[in-house]
Amino acid sequence: MEHVTEKQDHQTRVKQATEAGKAKQNPDAAFRLGYHLMAPSGWINDPNGLVFYKEQYHVFYQHHPYDETWGPMHWGHAVSDDLVHWRHLPVALAPGDAFDQSGCFSGSAVDDDGVLTLIYTGHNVVNQETDELYQNQNIARSVDGVTFEKSEANPVIPAQPVGMQRDFRDPKVWKEDGSWKMVVGSTEAGKGQVLLYQSSDLENWEYQGILAKHNGGNEGYMWECPDFFKLDGKHVLLLSPQGIEPEGNRFHNLYQTGSLIGEMRDGEFVRGAFTELDYGHDFYAVQTFLDGKGRRIAIGWMDMWESPMPSQQEGWSGALTLPRELNLSPAGKLRMKPVEELQLLRVTEEQLKQNEISGTFLIDGQSNQLELEFDIDLTISAANIFGVNVCCSSDGSERSTIQINRSKGTITLDRSYSGIGVSGARTAPIEIGESLHVRLFIDRSSIEIFINEGETVMTSRIYPKESSTGIEFFTEEGTMKLRSAHLYQL
Ligand code: FRU
Asked: Can 46 be counted among the known catalytic residues?
């Protein structure tokens, strides 16, 4: 009887959370994104449970529907036929059961023979004053893809021994050779690691050992949000380590998201060095899934812990990145390029006539929801430093600068004049070949930059005025030759 009451409680909590989120919607919010996935209102962080289920794309996310700041974590839920147009569904998971008292933390989803099954971390604060807490793994199922029932078997993996129980989270599950596998983020003696489990039924899990661990260098104290898959002949472990220290141009965000690429040898994952996946200010907790076309698609949280979030004044905070298809370059580099469906967003197309720029060349982008794509001919381009300012105000006070330095082989995104709340530059390596392909997506308070089919990617939040729609190409001493340039209103 007691359990029945708990189940009803969960559905009641889900309903209340969904209604609270709807009630809090703010139609006047100026920083709301136009074509990115966000919650109807309130706070969001990590993407969760990305899955292609019954011919539709489902995305869940860490969500606090009652407030624009982080709090007891729920799972928000949206669905799409094309990865571009999203429809909100009711909140899928609300915390408050015996095994997830303080939050339904991040996790993944699988299609278990027609049953949409979520695997997530139960976050349980035992004593707020002493900060005693434990984390365990749980499942919830749905047959209609909308309403989820938590399993009576929860927790399916109980909390770990003291010492590891605080940081034992973010299960990513997939099927391989007929059995379910799970990677979970963890730590030991202040060093990040990823644990591996196996199951035949998603309820009974067997510990298989440590899949990967800290190499003793600068790899962080806790590895959040692991994801493990095969890609183009290699094995890739994505992870979001906390505690990596800045080194030169690298690792300047509070936490990082990146990859360890390697191969399985005699059951061991032998891997290379940790490499950032996205070099912008705001990219974290990426998760991937395989879709019906066999593509490996990645979506990240388009913010960073403890960074300024001016949209909180509008009653909301956080968004997910555009979906990106992953592949390995011939040199073994992990690339992320926007999924081809994003072309569906293009409303108008304008081809820029100017093909040689010397000094500055300004156009009106006409809006803050656009895509700019251009190809620079490097065989004859003479300038060493060139680039483009976007979201420029007419009085010169606002701009977001994307600058390429040819001799250094770098791209810099400078947010010093990107509107309210944000600042600072990030610099990433780029390959200098015969040409440089740049694709930029601007969506009011976000910018995503894809260089050379996703070899280098930068994602950042910016908060310019709505009227700051100028686009200014520039060179420092010399010319830049454009092979082509297109502006699309989205
Ligand atoms: C990553 C993370 C996860 C955790 C979730 C809590 O951003 O800290 O490790 O499950 O967010 O919201």
From this structure: yes
Least confident of 230-234, 440-444, 476-480: 476-480
Ligand 1 mutation pick, 46, 64, 73, 120, max ligand atoms within 8 A of CB: 46
CA 481, 454, 431, 244 torsion-angle sign: positive
In the predicted structure, residue 449 carries a pLDDT above the cut 70: yes
Average pLDDT over residues 427-453: 97
Cα three-residue angle 117-118-122, rounded to 5 degrees: 140
Q: pLDDT tens digit string along 148-204?
A: 999 999 999 999 877 668 999 999 999 999 999 999 999 999 999 999 999 999 999
**Residue with CA closest to ligand 1 atom 8:** 224
Distance 46 CA to ligand 1 centre (A): 7
Ligand 1 neighbours, Cβ below 6 Å, are 45-46, 62, 73, 105-106, 121, 169-170, 224-225, 284-285
pLDDT digits (tens, 9 = 90+) for 289-339: 999 999 999 999 999 999 999 999 999 999 999 999 999 999 999 999 999
Give the separation between CA 129 and CA 35, rounded to whole angstroms.
42
Choose one of 169, 194, 239, 306 to mutate for the ligand 1 pocket test, by most ligand atoms within 8 angstroms of C-beta. Answer: 169
Question: ∠65-71-72 over CA atoms, to 5°?
Answer: 80
Per-residue pLDDT, 8:
65
Instruction: State which of 43, 44, 45 you would mutate to test the pocket of ligand 1, scoring each by most atoms of that ligand within 8 A of its C-beta.
Output: 45
Residue 124 near residue 133 (C-beta atoms within 8 A): yes
**Does ipTM come in above 0.90?**
yes
Euclidean distance between CA atoms 286 and 224, whole angstroms: 10
Atom 1 in ligand 1: residue holding the nearest Cα: 285
**Alpha-carbon span 484 to 268, nearest angstrom:** 47
Q: How far is the CA of 107 from the centre of ligand 1 (A)?
A: 9
Whole-angstrom CA distances from 293 to 52, 59, 290, 314 are 10, 17, 8, 38
